[in-house]
Backbone:
């Protein structure tokens, strides 16, 4: 399921920032969880390999949790811009950050490691769900999904490989994403029947 | 309360895809990033979570299966059978008799089946398999199904847990449809029935 559950009211992020500043690691963890997908999207725009994207995300979170723990963020309401600023700074100078990363990782590894899911030997429910939903797509659309999201190829490369225009690739990607999102927001078809 | 409705892009998932894939121009991306991070702070960017879930699952399938096709060839099946994975293989026959599915090993990696319907002589553009319950309720459609060109049979490779979920649900009626243009023709029906579990 990709939709946000509204069963419990979400804590305002300003409160989480204050708690994290008082040493509450769980609060810091919840902030990291909220930002992890957005930080990955930021990294995807600039990096190709999933490992590099994961490493960048961890780097951002290490800097963020330290800033929260040491109350560097004086105005909690500025958290979104603060996290985006960390992303931009790290993207500007990744080499300089490597040394600092090692030190921070030693201190906060447990907190940020959980944000990078381990690759399971067995298929997760998400994998089964995607397999089930992919069958709803045409083979052309499945090819676009594979090349876009499993192989991280550019629109240009996909267009060449499938003899399409880049515009067609973009439309097919968006359409397939919509179908998959709707399908994966429900239960696996066999369970729902 | 959030004021996200005033600032959300009309198609958040499409916009995120344009952003992450680099299609969105830098000038536009800057404003998009600010909006994305503001929504993420409020846990109101589910499209970003979905996108990462999709990538992770797609990478897993690609690494493990190397294919996003529906339907396999005999050669692919033989390759998997020789891989050492825990596999149950069943020949479902030619769709003239119902097939009883025994309880599956919970540790099964793959369930592989062969359906001996030979469509090589048929004239078609597409093959779809529409699955319903035995009461006629729609379950799902397998679109653009591939078969083995050498023997004309369908080979299905299913992750063990997904096979367990599908067969445990009950009797399923799978209708093989061939299509050309806007016309569709029903050419075969396969009935599968779960056998009672002794577990």
Residues:
């Amino acid at each position: 399921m990709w939709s946000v559950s509204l069963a419990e009211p979400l804590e305002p992020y300003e409160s989480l920032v204050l708690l994290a500043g008082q040493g509450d690691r769980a609060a810091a963890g919840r902030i990291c969880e909220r930002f992890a997908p957005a930080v990955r999207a930021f990294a995807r725009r600039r990096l190709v390999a999933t490992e590099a994207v994961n490493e960048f995300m961890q780097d951002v979170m290490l800097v963020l949790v330290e800033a929260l723990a040491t109350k560097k963020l004086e105005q909690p309401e500025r958290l979104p811009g603060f996290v985006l600023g960390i992303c931009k700074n790290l993207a500007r100078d990744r080499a300089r950050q490597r040394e600092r990363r090692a030190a921070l990782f030693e201190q906060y590894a447990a907190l940020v490691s959980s944000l990078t899911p381990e690759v399971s030997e067995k298929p997760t429910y998400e994998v089964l769900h995607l397999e089930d939903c992919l069958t709803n797509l045409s083979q052309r659309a499945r090819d676009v999904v594979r090349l876009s999201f499993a192989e991280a190829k550019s629109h240009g490369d996909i267009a060449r490989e499938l003899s399409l225009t880049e515009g067609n690739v973009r439309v097919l990607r968006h359409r397939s994403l919509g179908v998959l999102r709707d399908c994966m927001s429900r239960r696996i078809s066999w369970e729902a029947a | 309360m959030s004021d996200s409705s005033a600032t959300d892009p009309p198609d958040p998932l499409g916009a995120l895809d344009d952003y992450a894939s680099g299609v969105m121009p830098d000038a536009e991306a800057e404003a998009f990033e600010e909006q994305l991070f503001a929504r993420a702070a409020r846990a109101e960017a589910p499209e970003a979570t979905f996108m990462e879930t999709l990538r992770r699952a797609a990478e897993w399938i690609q690494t493990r299966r190397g294919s996003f096709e529906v339907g396999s060839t005999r050669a692919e099946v033989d390759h998997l059978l020789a891989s050492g994975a825990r596999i149950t293989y069943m020949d479902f026959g030619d769709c003239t008799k119902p097939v009883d599915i025994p309880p599956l090993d919970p540790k099964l990696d793959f369930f592989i089946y062969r359906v001996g319907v030979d469509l090589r002589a048929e004239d078609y553009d597409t093959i779809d398999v529409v699955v319903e319950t035995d009461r006629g309720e729609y379950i799902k459609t397998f679109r653009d199904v591939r078969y083995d060109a050498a023997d004309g049979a369908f080979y299905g490779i299913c992750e063990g847990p997904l096979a367990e979920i599908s067969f445990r649900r009950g009797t399923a009626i799978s209708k093989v449809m061939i299509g050309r243009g806007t016309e569709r023709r029903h050419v075969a029906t396969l009935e599968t029935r779960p056998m009672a579990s002794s577990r």
